[in-house]
Amino acid sequence: MIARFPDDFLWGVATSAYQIEGFPLADGAGPSIWHRFAHTPGRVAGNDTGDLACDHYHRYREDVALMAELGLNLYRFSLAWGRVLPEGWGAVNRLGLDFYARLVDALLEQGIRPMATLYHWDLPVALHERGGWLNPDSPHWFADYAETLFRALDDRVPFWITLNEPWVIAVPGYLDGQLAPGHRDLFEPPRVAHHLLLAHAEAVAAYRALGHHEIGVAVNLEPQYPASSAPSDLEAARRRDSFVNRWFLDAILFGRYPEELADIFGPAWPEFPDESLARIRCPGDFIGVNYYSRGLVRAAPGSPPLNAIRVTPPDAELTAMGWEVYPQGLTETLVWLKDRYANPPLYITENGAAYDDPPPRAGLVEDPRRIAYLREHILAAATALEQGVDLRGYCVWSLLDNFEWAEGYSKRFGLYRVDRTDLRRWPKASAGFYRDVIRSRGAIVFRASAPPTAGCAADAVPRDATTAHVSRAD
Fold first, then answer.
1. Which residues are named in the active-site annotation (predicted)?
2. Is 271 a catalytic residue?
3. Catalytic (active site) residue 350
4. 448 has a pLDDT exceeding 70
5. Binding site listing for substrate
6. Residue 209: burial class (beta carbons within 10 Å; 0-12, 13-18, 19+)
7. What span, in angstroms and rounded, lies between the C-alpha atoms of 53 and 60?
8. Which has the closest alpha carbon to 323: 349, 302, 294, 303?
9. Which residues contact 6 (CB under 8 A, 6 or more apart)?
10. Tell me: the pLDDT tens digits for 30-68?
11. Which of 53, 89, 349, 434 is placed for a possible disulfide with 22 were both Cys, Cβ 3.0 to 4.6 Å?
C-alpha cells in the first residue's frame, strides 16, 4: 500500500447550485424545473424547497473560508443556467454571471481551484416549456449557454464539467418520475439521453475553440453484482450494468450504445443515425466519477424495463439513504474504467454518506460513521492508484448539509451541519478528519486502524458470484 497520495493530488468538496444557493429567482434569475418541481405539493419530502437552501448566494465568502480552513485545493460547484440566462438563451443576466465571477475570484484568493459544472439538473423552465431535453434543439441551447460561461470565466476556471449524472437526468427525471421534471414515459429516456450526449459533444467542441484548460463529464457509477449465482441473476446484473454504467460512457468513448439497451427499451428504443452516433463520441479530457454504493441485482420478471430489481444484502451497513456501504466497489469501478476505456484521467467528483447526525455539542457534531465511510473510501481510492489508475483528485459530497432533492432537508451529507433556523454552519468531526487527510496527503488513513463495516464483508453475496463488470467478457 502506498504511504500517501501524490503531491499533486487534488482534494476537494462538491456542491450544486439549487441544493445550496437559495434565492433561485434573485437578481433577475429565471426559474428552473427544480424550482417548479419543489413547489408542486407532494413532490419533495416535507414539501421542502430550495428557496432558502443554505443561502450560499449571500454567504459564499463564509463558505469559501470554511473550504480554506479544510485546506482544500479544489472546489466543484455548479452554475444555475437560469441565473446566467433567465430564458435559457438570449440576453445574459449580468447580476447572475457576476455572482459566479465573485465566487471564482474568492476561491482563487484562497488557492482553491474551481471545477465548474455547467448543468446539475436545473434546466430553465422557459426551455422546458419548449420541450426541454426532448427537443432536438436542446444541444444547441446548451452549447450557447456553455460558450457564454467559457468566454466569461475560462481565464480563471481550470476544470469544466459539462453534465452531472446524465443517467439521473434521463431515468429518475423522465422514466421513474422521482426527480424533475417528473415524467413517466418509457419512450422519453432514450431521446433525452441522446440529446444530452449531443449537448456534451457540442459543449466540448465549443470549448476546444475557446478554452485553454480541461473539460469532462461526471457520471454516476456502481458495480453491479448478481444476488446469486443463478443464470437469471447473472443476466439481470449484466442488463443493469449496461443500463447504469455503460449507456453514457460507451457512447462518449466508443460512439455506440450497449446492445442490451435495445432489448431493455424494446419499441421505445429509436434507430439513431450513424452520423449522430459519430458526433456523440467525444471523450473530453477526463471523467468524473460519482460513487456511493454498489448494485446487488436480482432478476424480477414483470418489473419493466429491466426485469431486475436491486436488493439489500442481509446485515449490510447502510447509510441514511438506505445505501449499502461498499468501499471496495469504488476500487472495482476505477479499475474497470482503466481496463475498459484505456485508463482515462479520472477525478472522484462525488463520494460521501448521509447519516442521522446528532445535534452539536460544545460546538461540534460527532459523526463517527461518516468518518469511517470516508476513511474506507479514500483507502479504496489509494488501492486503485496502486493498480495503475490515473486518478487525479477526490471530492467529498458535500461541504454542507443541503437540499437533498426529493428528500428535502431530511438527509444530511455535509461536513458541516446547517441549522435550519438560522443557517449557522456547525463543524462535524468529519470536517476535522478530512482536514487532517489533506494535511497529511492521505497518510492518516493508512496509519488509522478501524474495523471494517458490516457492509464490507466479502461474503455479502455468494462466493461464486462475480460482479457484472468482472464477469463480462468485453
1. 165 (proton donor), 350 (nucleophile)
2. no
3. yes
4. no
5. 19, 120, 164, 292, 397, 404-405
6. exposed
7. 13
8. 294
9. 385, 441
10. 999 999 999 999 999 999 999 999 999 999 999 999 999
11. 53
What is the 8-class DSSP label of residue 361?
A: B
Question: Of 390, 412, 389, whose CA–CA distance to 401 is shortest?
Answer: 412
Query: What is the spatial distance between Cα 359 and Cα 350, in angstroms, rounded to a whole number?
Result: 25
Give the start-to-end residue ranges of the domains of the chain.
10-471
- Could you tell me the end-to-end alpha-carbon distance of the chain, in angstroms, rounded to an integer? 29
Considering the candidates 222, 332, 350, 376, report the single residue annotated as catalytic: 350
Give the torsion sign (CA, 93, 95, 98, 99). Answer: negative
CATH dotted code for 10-471: 3.20.20.80
pLDDT of residue 471 exceeding 90: no
- Dihedral of the CA atoms 15, 196, 343, 444 (nearest 10)? 10
> For the chain, what is the mean pLDDT?
94
Q: Does residue 368 come out as left (phi exceeding 0), alpha (psi in the -120 to 50 range) or beta?
A: alpha
User: Which residue do the cell numbers 472546489 mark?
Assistant: 75
* Residue that has been written with the C-alpha cell 447504469 in this structure: 244
- The active-site residue, picked from 21, 165, 202, 332, is 165
CA 179 to chain centre: 14
